[in-house]
Amino acid sequence: MTDAPFTLPKTNSSLWSIRPFHRQYLMRQANNLYDFFEAPSINPKGGFYELDEDGKPLGGDNAIRQIHVTTRMVHCAAIGSLIGRPGSDELVDHGMRYIWEKHRDQKHGGYVWSLDDNGYKDSGKQAYGHAFVLLAASSAKIAGHPLADQMIADVTKVINERFWDEKRGAVRDEFNQDWSTLLPYRGQNANMHMTEALMAAFEATGNRDYLTKAERIADLIIAKNAVPMDHRVAEHFDDNWVLDKNYEGNEMFRPSGTTPGHWLEWSRLLFQLWALGDKRLSWMTDAARNLFRQAVDLGWDEKHGGFFYTLDWDNKPIMREKLWWPVSEAIAAAAVLSTHDRDDYFQIWYRKLWDYAENHVIDHGRGGWLSELTEDLRPTSRLFVGKPDIYHALQACLIPLYPATGTLTSAIIQGDHTVKQAH
User: Fold this and answer.
1) Quick check: pTM over 0.85?
2) How far is CA 166 from CA 89, 270, 390, in A?
3) Residue 287 near residue 265, CB atoms below 8 Å
């Protein structure tokens, strides 16, 4: 006799996110992440350190600063400022000045990928990095930083003139430093994060061109590619946007196969984009639901728990490691979907995902979240060294606390306004 699948009794099916204890739990977890990452990450020479498992700086006296690390910390510090965490404004300023004075290429324009105290280490110009510059600047603008408008204008000009492909409705991926060489690779990951950044820029500035570009990217990556492939997100394309199923790239940023964590990330972004676009593109909500369900059905390890990092095109695991960011994105997606869709399925998974994170991913002894687990959930470091950043886990903690009507930074402002009206 097999056990019947677990379902929530009707008396226990209300959203956790409205329950006072759960809201306290989420804010406590967010505060723990800030405690672990903020002060130890500050590099007195500029920018931010990456941290080891114990929260100690990596890289020594001449640590390399990668642009996604700098910009994500600015974004998260801006969130800290908006929710009222003391010390956050100084972190925003510390990071914004490093982006503007160091990552920004004053000779050729754009923002380089990495540098140390002696200069550029990787001077390439990636759409992925520029997306996070736009996100950081947009979040900093909402938090009131004086450099934000200038940075938004600068990076927007670069995105429009260098990366944006008007014919395709997406961004190109990577140039060399002086823009003379464009790599033939096209990828969904840079476009996914550009979608996130474009939404944030739209909310920060009111310029609808950002929203239009985000909708066009979603149409290409999801409506034209993922939906016909049974709601599996294709990662890698050639310069004509023809799917390359045999692509083998960087295991961290461009792994082969397909990545269920990105299906989950898109499921959240689509609902946010639908809400920002006056709820007129109904295809997005249907796609979001199906992306979430497919990620669970194909990517979740029923034996041990956790999402496999990558799958092949026969839906078999390639990399069986369980990383921190897919479960973070799954939590955020389940929270957003539960708000808009009262199907108990999404709330059941929201709770199951937090159970998994609490019992296996959150490092209760040292702080932060474990970045990588083996298939059977033992800590490992094959792909990642240390605890890479605060960004994914922090958003998993905070997105459930605020209205699911757009990006987190603007949702915090909207939530504060709602509280003021109630009083």
Assistant:
1) yes
2) 37, 21, 33
3) no
Reported as a single tens digit per residue, the pLDDT across 255-293 is 999 999 999 999 999 999 999 999 999 999 999 999 999
Residue 55, classed as helix, strand or coil, is: coil
Catalytic residue list = 262, 392
Q: Which two tokens stand for residue 123?
A: 């001077």
- For the chain, give every domain's residue range: 42-183, 213-245+258-423
Q: Domain 42-183, what fold?
A: Glycosyltransferase (1.50.10)
Q: What's the confidence (pLDDT) of residue 8?
A: 59
CATH assignment of 213-245+258-423? 1.50.10.10
What DSSP string describes 56-114?
PBSSGGG--EEHHHHHHHHHHHHHHHHHT-TTHHHHHHHHHHHIIIIIB-TTT-SB-SE
Domains 42-183 and 213-245+258-423 share a fold: yes
Render pLDDT for 303-347 as a digit per residue (tens, 0 to 9).
999 999 999 999 999 999 999 999 999 999 999 999 999 889 999
Q: Take residue 226 and report the two structure tokens written for it.
A: 């993922």
What are 183-187's contacts with CB under 8 Å, separation 24+?
184/238, 184/239, 185/236, 185/237, 185/238, 185/239, 185/247, 185/249, 185/254, 186/236, 186/237, 186/238, 186/239, 186/241, 187/235, 187/236, 187/237, 187/254
Q: Locate 52 and state its tokens.
A: 């080891």
